[in-house]
Amino acid sequence: MTTIVRETALPGLRVRRGKVRDVYDLGNRVLLVGTDRLSAFDWVLPGGIPDKGKVLTQISDFWFSRLNTPNHRITTDVRAMDLPPEVDRKELAGRTMLCRKTEVVPIECVVRGYLAGSGWSEYQKSGTVCGISLPPGLTESARLPEPIFTPATKAETGHDENISFEQMVEAVGRETAEELRRRSLAVFQRGAAYALEKGIIIADTKFEFGRIDGELILIDEVLTPDSSRFWPADQYVPGRSQPSFDKQFVRDWLVASRWDKNSPPPTLPEEVVLKTREKYIEAYQRLTGTRFASSD
After folding, report:
1. Using an 8 Å Cβ cutoff, are 71 and 87 in contact?
2. Which domain holds residue 196?
3. Domain ends where: 81, 101, 121?
């Protein structure tokens, strides 16, 4: 088993720790380090998933190259990064991305291509998803007639909050809102079409955008098992929940453990950790067509 990297330390650099990533401020650039921390039900769990940060960073790197859309990535080669000499570059290798710093747009740009999760729950009650009316008679996990854009507010802790498109317009202006909707739908459709060729259904995802000199560019992670719902296409059966390429093993175990979701979460058993790691790596290998190699 490889080492679990729960946090990174770069002497002299200011760091902000998110749920799963460490973000270092380098002035006009930022260093995004994917740790192996794992969050579920708004908690960061004890332990972690070995290599998870590397898998997610390398999937995002793959998409930034393939999607051919303006983005914030500069390099993932730690040898090319101007870092303090005492920094352990081996620890950062494979899990680190040097990026241009942007003015982050405070909106989660969510695109849904299938009826799942909170969308399915809402649809059963009202026939809508985030207030958007859908045809009657759809079943759980059904493919939508066309992908829909359902923005949300960004939350550092806790849940993002779904908002209407008009609320998004009030927050960022109509021109920006319409461009973000158009760009998000276009990127989703290109990515989902490619993933399907590789045997993965991308049911939904969320994007983030930032602005540099007035230009909107794609930032953060892109079409990963953490930011998206990945389903194996060969096991897809509408009318039920689907197996997935993410931390579903973890969610299922936590629910079965009767954890109350209010007190600190329990430690995951090794079997759940290993199965979750395998699913992340399988998603990487299917998408990229290359074998994942841990450097440990």
Report:
1. no
2. 108-235
3. 101
